[in-house]
Amino acid sequence: MAAVTNMTNLTAKPMRRIPYLEILRIIILIALGALFVLPFLWMVSTSFKETGQAYRFPPEFIPQPFTIKNYLNLWGGPIPFDRFYINTIIIVILSEIGTLTSCTLVAYSFARLKWWGRDVWFVVLLATMMLPFQVVMIPVYIIFRQLGWLDTLLPLVVPTFFGNPFYIFLLRQFFLGIPRDLEDAARVDGAGTFRILWQIFLPLSKPVLLTVAMFTFVGHWNDFLGPLLYLSSVDNMTISVGLAMFQGRGGSNWPALMSAATLATVPILIIFTLFQKYFVKGIVLTGMKG
Questions:
Q1: Which residues, in sequence order, are CB contacts of 225 under 8 Å at separation 6+?
Q2: Is the N or C terminus of the chain more exposed, i.e. has fewer CB atoms within 10 Å?
Q3: Residue 220 pLDDT grade (very low, low, confident, very high; cuts 50, 70, 90)
Q4: Beta strands per DSSP E along 94-151
């Protein structure tokens, strides 16, 4: 009888402990997530309201009535928000091309090619990251004025074709993590430098390339100081400057302002939602080798 009891105790499954700490952690994360998402949801909700409903107390979260006239008024109105959107898209596309092209070539040179003074110039490159834009703002403005580029999109696009120190650093760190055996095997097969970069490094570097592309997109989409310095005509303005102009002229029309802010925010959320997996992976892998 005692043997049967012992066998029963051995075969009985142990009771699972309730993970109270894990449940508490999830609750805290949900609460913090709701705290950060609530302002965005309120912005979207207000963009579909009538002007009077935005000032009601207590506040009403659900628009009654639901209207899209605030979005329709942005297109073809006194403030050409549609033109701001097109200008920003042009700047972002050209900046993506310039940044990815220049930074990839420079980073590959620092990571794989051997040339005199390579490490010294890499230190100089890193040192430029410590230099605030406000320090060189006036000299750069004078250069663009001498070139006749003021009030054009060129000052916002052309510098991207000369590289960015931070993006070069990210790409170089990722390239250093790619095994040299792949490169040596390709050279044995007769592949040149650019073919190795195109057929080996770039396909393996999708996470970090998408990370750089996301940083570039967000940086130029939200850029306010650059367009404010170099652009003066309304037809050349971007979304960030256009929002400030819209706020100044729109007065107390909060639903109209919230609709403009929503249109300026949604593309960033879409890009980050689609590529967040590659974004996190690219950031993590860039620090594996130094």
A1: 133
A2: N
A3: very high
A4: none
**Whole-model pTM?**
0.81
Quick one: how far is CA 187 from the chain centroid?
36
Cβ(261)–Cβ(240) below 8 Å: no
Q: Is residue 113 part of a domain?
A: yes
Write down the mean pLDDT value for the chain.
83
- Tell me what pLDDT residue 230 has: 92
Q: Which domain holds residue 164?
A: 79-285
CA dist list (Å): 43 to 246, 258, 261:
16, 6, 8
CA distances from 265 to 146, 158, 243, 257 (A): 35, 25, 11, 12
The residue with greater pLDDT, 67 or 95, is: 95
For residues 197-232, b (16+ Cβ closer than 10 Å) or e, as one string? beebbeebbebbbbbbbbbbbebbbebeebbebbbe
pLDDT band for position 200 (cuts 50, 70, 90): confident
Least confident of 95-99, 243-247, 278-282: 278-282
Residue 40 lies in a domain: no
Question: How many domains are contained in the chain?
Answer: 1
Whether 12 is covered by a domain: the verdict is: no
Cβ contact 212:105 at 8 Å: no
Which residues are CB-contacts of 250 (< 8 A; sequence separation ≥ 6)?
Answer: 79, 256, 257
